[in-house]
Design a protein that fits this description.
Layout lengths: L38 E2 L11 H8 L15 H11 L6 E4 L1 H13 L6 E4 L5 H9 L3 E4 L19 E4 L11 H9 L6 E4 L20 E6 L12 E5 L1 H11 L9 H12 L1 H24 L2 E2 L7 E6 L4 H10 L2 E2 L12 E4 L3 H17 L1
Parallel strand pairs: 1-11, 3-4, 5-6, 6-7
Antiparallel strand pairs: 2-8, 7-8, 9-10, 10-12
Helix pairs in contact: 1-7, 2-7, 3-4, 3-6
The structure holds pyridoxal-5'-phosphate (PLP).
């Protein structure tokens, strides 16, 4: 590429208009390698296809309908979700993946001079949104077992968010302890990010009736095999949902496209398929715990569709490279504590067998 158009003496910050640019350090998503013969266990996607009802809804979509704007309220999807959770449609907010919903919730609810709180080892998007929106925050260290300690959240703050089960550890915080955090935080909004709740945890949705300041966020990306469709949602009191809608309608009214609304509605209605695929993943995960422990790995007990593993002898970075060379992709994070671990998404039984096979060979030789 020609570099002739660059003015050599003007470096980045010296051009006046550059001083007005909002500088941020973005979230880095897991890689999406292309190609057929690889085993992808790095971004917690579901190894099974979406439900047959979703495929039918998409095939039945009349492309002519795309001429019009979609329903800005995504009413059909709200209604399906409200029915599924036995809530009112006024208690449901939908967005373009739960990242959109969480970002909107940060913008809406965390508007205090006091710092908001989240765990030190958690979803790495939280500090990115906080920085982007200028929200002060502090992190609460996980305990020695890599679990959230509810007592850390018993202090003045501007709001609380944590995933349950946590990512990337997979640790599930029992509902009693979630409620302990809520009991000590009645004056701020508490967000429970339940991206992985369907894989064996117990949802905080049952606490919504008692805590008007609780927002539960879930997604179609993991348990419903629809990461590519981008559907997330929040469940909460009508007052919280209304506030989020006001912010949304002040920014972009038409977040949900028509195919997403229809496919999402179909997915919620196909409960049998949902239970079957989630059940298969749980079974594969429980088997993975035995197989990986036998190979010398340790990990916090996981109720998610991934395991956060470390080996007694071999460093995580070395293992990551060795796996990658064999076209097996897992996730390795940098930073204190987490860099000793690999996060391995639960795939199909066949994919997991390929992983165990390689590890047996590699660790046996090492
Ligand atoms: C995957 C994930 C999300 C976001 O998923 P979307 O695809 O945007 O719905 C949110 N929180 C956690 C903890 C996640 O792991």
């Amino acid at each position: 590429m020609s570099r002739r158009n660059e003015a050599p003496e003007e470096t980045a910050a010296s051009r006046p208009w550059e001083r007005n640019i909002r500088r941020v350090t973005p979230y880095v998503p897991g890689e999406q390698p292309q190609g057929g013969r690889l085993i992808k266990l790095n971004t917690n996607e579901n190894p099974y296809p979406p439900s047959p009802g979703v495929c039918k809804a998409l095939r039945g979509l009349d492309p002519g309908a795309l001429r019009r704007y979609p329903d800005p309220a995504a009413s059909a999807l709200l209604k399906a979700l409200a029915g599924y959770y036995a809530l009112e449609p006024e208690q449901v907010f939908v967005g373009v993946g739960s990242d959109d919903v969480l970002g909107m919730a940060f913008l809406t609810f965390f508007n205090s001079d006091r710092p908001m709180l989240f765990p030190d080892v958690t979803y790495s998007f939280y500090p990115v949104w906080a920085e982007l929106f200028g929200i002060p925050y502090e992190t609460c260290p996980l305990n020695a077992d890599l679990a959230v300690d509810p007592r850390d959240y018993d202090r003045a703050n501007g709001g609380v968010v944590f995933p349950n089960p946590n990512a990337p550890t997979g640790c599930f915080l029992p509902l009693g302890q979630v409620e302990e955090i809520l009991r000590h935080n009645r004056d701020v909004v508490v967000i429970v990010d339940e991206a992985y709740i369907d894989f064996g945890g117990e949802s905080a949705v049952s606490l919504l009736g008692r805590y008007e300041n609780l927002l539960v966020v879930q997604t179609f990306s993991k348990s419903r095999s629809m990461a590519g469709m981008r559907i997330g949602y929040a469940l909460g009191s009508p007052a919280l949902i209304r506030a989020m809608q006001d912010v949304k309608y002040s920014y972009n009214s038409y977040t949900m496209n028509l195919p997403s609304i229809l496919a999402g509605e179909a997915a919620v209605k196909d409960e049998e398929y949902f239970k079957e695929t989630v059940g298969k993943i749980i079974e594969t995960r429980e088997n993975a715990k035995k197989r990986l422990a036998a190979l010398g790995f340790t990990f916090p007990d996981s109720k998610a569709n991934f395991l956060f593993i470390r080996h007694s002898r071999v460093r995580a970075a070395e293992l990551y490279d060795a796996l990658r060379a064999r076209q097996i992709y897992v996730r390795h994070f940098s930073g204190p504590r987490v860099e000793d671990y690999l996060r391995v998404t639960i795939g199909t039984d066949e994919e997991m067998e390929a992983l165990y096979g390689f590890l047996e060979e590699y660790l046996g030789a090492g």
